[in-house]
Amino acid sequence: MEATTARAPAREAGIRLPRAGAGLGMGMVTLYLSVIVLLPLAAVVAKSLDNGTGSFWDAVTGTQSMAALKLTVVCSLIVVAINAVFGTIIAWVLVRDRFPGKGAVNAVIDLPFALPTIVAGLTLLALYGSDSPVGVSVAFTRTAVVFALLFVTLPFVVRAVQPLLMELDREMEEAATSLGAGGFTVFRRIIFPNLLPGLAAGVALAFARALGEYGSLVLITGNIPFKTEVSSVFIRSQIESGNEAGAAAVSVVLLTVSLVLLAAVTFAQRWGSKGSGK
Amino acid sequence: MTGSSTASRWSLRFLALGYLTILLLAPLVMIFVKTFQDGIGPPIDAITSPDGLAALKLSLITVAVAVPLNTVFGVGCALLLVRHRTRLNWLIDGVINLPFAISPIVIGLSLYLLYGTTGWFGPTLGDAGIKILFSTPGIILACVFVSLPFVVREVVPVLQEIGTEQEQAASTLGASSWQTFWRVTLPAIRWGVAYGVVLTTARVLGEFGAVTIVSGSISGQTQTLPLFVSKEFEQFNLPGAYGASILLAMLALTTLLLMNLLKRKDDA
Questions:
Q1: Å from A203 to nearest chain B CA?
Q2: Residues within 8 A of A (CB atoms), B 196-225 only
Q3: DSSP letters spanning chain A
Q4: pTM of the model
Q5: pLDDT tens sequence across A126-158
Q6: What is the pLDDT of residues A7-21, one digit of tens each?
Q7: How many beta-carbon pairs under 8 angstroms link A with B?
Q8: Domain B42-267 has CATH 1.10.3720.10
Q9: Complex-level ipTM beyond the 0.85 threshold
Q10: What is the CATH number of the domain that holds A218?
């Protein structure tokens, strides 16, 4: 892990592709990214402005659209806050604690990344639906939105904080303790500031994921407009009813938020690598 | 360690494991319970039904095309990003990360707007007899889009870590850059590539949101396994939905296993 930063200067040399080869490669990368990613996204932006900026705003600020956006943002914020706390605790336990079966627990963390979202939705519905075996029935409520988003965003904070915790110099903590600092003070003054870049990146990625989530939500939320309909479900319903411009307008709002978050993550990571003395 | 820190360690452990049990373990156990509550017959019948087999086949075709595409692109792109620093690297880096931050529904919509009957390319391609939307190419494009970042993300750090000394030695000894790549670079990054391939495959197999928009979910024709799950559920055929789900869940567990094996190899 440390070698990543230590040997970074060596990248100046490298495989000696001829200059022309590198140019060709760059051209092909640009072409691939344009065809697969950029062109489709350009079509969304263009479509959203098909009928002018006026109808763009009408589409975004329509009552059903606004209700969906509000629900999406509020639920995502709640979920990210909960997973920031529990994600940090889980990362802490995985790095600092020792108990039998820790390896298995560490492996299971990535389950939400590996399990298809529709399967996650189906099983959450079986678990927390009307005939819930554990007696918790939240199907078709806003709580269901939060439950599903908690599941799909769990790994982000854990995986962002874990490597920083492993690298953390324990001598600092020991020094603080020997100078009389209590456990909480050590966490607040020493550990937390060092974890902050990773935590910020994990939170931003989790938030972006929550904003756009679809598969795990469709079955358990019931997609009730003004109640449990999130933005991605709203976009889908607009596509199905032929309102492509409206769907594109709300998509552009989500896209913009994603871009801002992505920039924030990049910034947080740079900040993190500067902090660790790169 | 003092007494109070032992207590706090136990309570943290309790909180972490409790949360994981409720959030991850309970749903995982639930799939198995629900699928096999009426024995092993119904889920197997569901998967081996004509529509189930067609969905499995389409999912495998999608993997067979999308994963190699993104692997070749991923390795090539990582090499360029790490070994040829240009002023545009930050931009390429940002674009590569986009699919992680965009809603799958928006990705589906974007392809719909390009290749639909009223889209940018839809009419021209349609006149040429090429159908993208509501057929296999559209599904593959959606999967390539959503799984694009994985291989690049995994290979870049490995390339940075291995440095260039061995490559330089190889080329000093007269190896061409092609030979150097196959004999020196690729063996050194193979676990990173493998890890990226596992993640890409899992994502392609499980993609639902983007595919749901571009596929039309026609039973037996344009249904991948996740779409099959959703359709069976909508038609109140729960054994069908759970049968396909258990197959996807097993693949997910295999993915987790491979991820851990590969990570360990990487550390060694």
A1: 12
A2: 199, 202, 205-209, 212-213, 225
A3: -HHHHHTGGGGGS-S---HHHHHHHHHHHHHHHIIIIIHHHHHHHHHHTTTHHHHHHHHHHSHHHHHHHHHHHHHHHHHHHHHHHHHHHHHHHHHH---TTHHHHHHHTTHHHHS-HHHHHHHHHHHHSTT-TTS---TTSHHHHHHHHHHHHHHHHHHHHHHHHHHS-HHHHHHHHHTT--HHHHIIIIIHHHHHHHHHHHHHHHHHHHHH--TTTHHHHTT-TTTT--HHHHHHHHHHTT-HHHHHHHHHHHHHHHHHHHHHHHHHHHHHHHHTT-
A4: 0.90
A5: 999 888 888 888 999 999 999 999 999 999 999
A6: 444 444 445 555 667
A7: 283
A8: yes
A9: yes
A10: 1.10.3720.10
